[in-house]
Amino acid sequence: MAAQTNAPISYRPAGTLDASGALAPYAGPWNRRLAAHLLRRAGFGGSPADVDRFAAMSPRDAVDSLVRFSDAGPLPARPALEDPPVPPRGLYRGFLAGMAADDATAEARKAFQMQRNQNRRRNLISMQTWWLQRMIASQSPLQEKMTLFWHGHFTSSPEKGTSAQELLMQNQLFREYALGNVRDLTLHVSQDPAMLRYLDNNVNAKAHPNENYARELMELFTLGIGNYTEQDIRESARAFTGWTFRLSPDGTGNFIDNKAQHDDGTKTFLGQTGNFSGTDIVNIIFRQPASSRWFAKKLLAFFVYMDPEPQLIDQVAALIRKNDFEMKPVMATLLHSNVFFSERAYRALVKSPVEFVVGTHQLFGINEVAPVELATMRQMGQMLFYPPNVKGWDGGVAWVNSQTILTRENFANGVAKSPKMMDAAAWIVPAMRSMDPRGVAKTLTEAMLQGDVSPASVAQLVTYLGGSGQTELAQLSMENVDERVRNAAYLTMAMPAYQLA
Prior knowledge:
This protein has helices spanning about 30-40, 50-55, 60-65, 105-135, 140-155, 165-175, 180-190, 195-200, 210-220, 230-240, 280-285, 290-305, 310-320, 325-335, 355-365, 370-380, 400-415, 420-425, 430-435, 435-450, 455-465, 480-495, and strands at about 245, 255, 265-270, 270-275. By secondary structure, the protein is mainly α. The relative contact order is 0.12.
């Protein structure tokens, strides 16, 4: 049987939004299908038992359990990161002056650079593995999902010498403020060593203001193009002068406000004038109506659907302002709303590689992430702690093309063939023992797709499991049931609906 993987992933067209009731509490029917939808969006999916548990709650109780983070359950230990290597004394003597190195020194520099790259690679692998396993194991899926959201919003990467320790500190900052106050988070991000390095504010001094962070803060992080001027960028860059860091012995930066390098002159920013600091700039930004609209649009595109209607953006922006940028009540309202459970929102987002991989692990109860899966995720288009640029990942249909779909298929096939799958996925066993092709097909499609599959695709699964109506040797039996069910699980993961959150 050939997997139906080349069929286009379809999106339901936008309907007429009932703007008056979009954020009203959902009061429609509640079932496993909608419980699974909530778990995919507010987390990564979960096991069939997780879906059953949420389906047994009311919609309000289900959402409340997600916004109240739990400390229950074991989590993977914080990764043991290697300190960055220290260059031998004199290795870079004369380097800044442009002096040529002799052959021995050039070779020594090359060897040190290789050592530093290997150190970064080992630390990056450790952090990626740790975070993926934390997402899989956490009893607070929304906390990890929000951490992922902020990770793709306030981007930083190992570029420009950012240490693994600094990136891990930033990751913990996102987790601490997962449902906290966005204004406070933005201020902390502005003082975060990983961000200070990444967008060059560590070299922003009054004699030579650097505008990189000031520009991206407004363009990508808080306001969007068209809501500020080039003069606003220049003035806010002056306000951020002196915000830098001091290195600790392990190479980690610690924020300092270097008053000697701060421009304490009068600045005019977004129509206001004063002797502003970086803190003042952040506070002024969050008083702009464009700021709440910017975060509203980003939240809707990540958790509900892409290209949300202007009136819906306005409603969510008003909700954000009403709650003074506190995310917990905003997300509680959004996840319990009519628009979240609308037909347009259902399976309307393409799973990111992280969602695809973590959700598959949770589905089959596989807690460990294999090293090869990190390379697989890179081929899918997403490397944790290493976004492609300051804009982050584009998401949406950018996640799926001929190459990434093939990589997803290969990943799914590897999981299906894994010895751990049958050991962990106890929900498959009763169907296997029945030796009933229809029962196995129903178990797989209900557990993995909540029945979001065409009758023709189910019939193909049944035909494959039953041996395609051939001889008795080809029929489902104790000798072939393990292989058949594994292949059927792979074929189900390769269906279009499994690619959608």
